[in-house]
Amino acid sequence: MTAAGTVDAVDAPVPLRRLVPLSAQHVLAMIAAPVSTVFLVAGTLDMPPDSTASLLSAVLLLCGAGALLQSLGAGPVGGRLPFVMLPGGAATALFLQIAQEYGAPTAAGAVLLAAALLLAVLPLYARVVRLFPPLVMGVAVLLIGIAMIRVATRLVTGPDGTGEPRAVLLAALTVAATVAAYVLLRGVWRQTSVLIGMAAGTAAAVATGLGAFTPAAGSGFSLPALLPFGAPRFDVVAALPLLVFSLTTLAEITGQTVLNSETVGRTPDPARDVPRVARADALVSLAGGMFGTSVMVTSAENIGIGRLTGVRSRFVTAGAGVLLVALGLATPVSRALAGIPGAVVGGSALVVYAVIAVMGVEMLRRADLSGTGGGTLTAALALAAGLLPLLTPDLYAGFPSWARTILGSGVVAGTVTAVLLSALLPRGARPGPLPVRE
Questions:
Q1: Is the separation of the CB atoms in 71 and 81 below 8 Å?
Q2: For residue 87, what is the enclosing H or E element?
Q3: Which residues cross the membrane (predicted)?
Q4: Domain count, the chain
């Protein structure tokens, strides 16, 4: 509640007639990530169709449960902010690396160990929260946006990075439709501009032959199977990459929590909110390890939508969680959603992720970059450290796996560099709490 006794925007309920399309917009903006992750895992591990359907059901159910937990909260678990949850892209790559080298049961055990470690270190978080001033957060958020833009382009170009002209054109049409809806429409229609852009892009793909709507193969319903790879095996050495990843996710969680708080108009309180968000991540990841998924992470995907539409209510992402649970139970629907052309999803994602990058620039503007202190050099070197693995993906290929986990992630490398340099280099007055933009 505000001082005047009115309900804060983030806590305000949304009428059902608006809630459904707004929640569906969040689902459609993020559905490609869990679906593509499942088919990546299934293809790499040569899983049969029924196991693939079971894994897809599990991932969607966990994404929905995570969104509900983060949006509504349960005691000390969940940030009570409009968040959604996804299988982490970097975590999935590490999961597959462990599965290929040590077997799928060891990879499942590594997920459980990583989630347990994250829970164990959370009591120490309050001691290090001062290491994340606006300068560090601005660098982290900017790198998150840039990294996500790179991910979005791969949806357009494919994994080899070579884009076909028709795919690029389809993505451009999707972006144009999104911008047109945002500029020309008003009210709830304007707030669903991303959803309208995706629908228009899919229609254009079918009508012009630029793409095809091809639902994933399969039929019937499928519930997730417990322990699909058998009993987990626990090997700390094999799990080391995911253990390091679980620690470095605190930097991303901090940036996303502060960013989301500012987006909804809530005064950022990392010491209170970050452990709540991380606990939800860890608990859902523990469940994920039992159902064969990789580490689940709270995602910044929906933050850009919230900023773009101006809708701040956490009940919208809670509604998205309900829809995701329903999709996890109704696997024919989830297979149909998987048929949205990748270029359409990539075009919509480019709009959302670009907004996130701009928000990082806005946060950097609040830091002292006058040149009289160490702020300018800190930001420059941190951005260089974060951009190097994005621009040269094989730069650290010869390093040990634990080093690649840290240095090979642009967000982690840049954030850690910003934290260290911010503490070591001299600067002017120490930044105070992050202000809230009106």
A1: yes
A2: strand 84-87
A3: 27-45, 51-69, 106-125, 132-152, 167-185, 192-213, 233-251, 315-334, 340-361, 373-391, 403-425
A4: 1
Q: Are 178 and 348 in contact (CB under 8 A)?
A: yes
Please indicate, yes or no, if residue 116 is contained in any of the structural domains. Answer: yes
In whole angstroms, what is the distance from residue 187 CA to residue 246 CA?
40
Provide the pLDDT for residue 32: 65
At 388, is the pLDDT very low, low, confident or very high (cuts 50, 70, 90)? very high
Q: Is residue 432 part of a domain?
A: no
- Judge residue 370's burial from the number of C-beta atoms within 10 Å of its C-beta, 0-12 exposed, 13-18 middle, 19 or more buried: exposed
- pLDDT classification of 396: cutoffs 50, 70, 90: confident
Which range of residues forms the domain containing residue 77? 9-213+224-424
- Asked if the structure places residue 29 within a domain, the reply is yes
State the amino acid at position 55 in one-letter form: L
- Position 219 in a domain: no
Residue 37: CB atoms within 10 A of its CB come to 23
Query: Residue 71's closest CA among 124, 10, 3, 144?
Result: 10
pLDDT bin (cut points 50, 70, 90) of residue 287 is: very high
Q: Are 60 and 84 in contact (CB under 8 A)?
A: no
Q: Which of 344, 319, 61 is nearest to 201 (CA)?
A: 344
